[in-house]
Amino acid sequence: MDLIEFEEQRTLRREEAAARLHEIADALASNNAFEFERNGRRFTVHVPDEVDLSVEFEAGDEGRELEIELSW
């Protein structure tokens, strides 16, 4: 299988970012999948019943970062 990689980075208000995270969480909780569309193509990511969750926080002089990662 060819590598498919997608990265989304944009500036949102805190409430908008929370709403986006809620959309992703709700899709995983109810459908066991996450769908998105880019450049006219629809992608469906099927997520198994068990995943590895990593939460990382970094703080420094140039800012702060909260990274949430699911892997399987």
UniProtKB/TrEMBL annotation:
InterPro entries assigned to the protein according to its UniProt record, in alphabetical order: Amphi-Trp_dom (IPR027598)
Pfam families: Amphi-Trp
Superkingdom of this protein's organism: Bacteria
Amphi-Trp domain location: 5-72
UniProt protein name: Amphi-Trp domain-containing protein
Organism field: Nocardioides agri
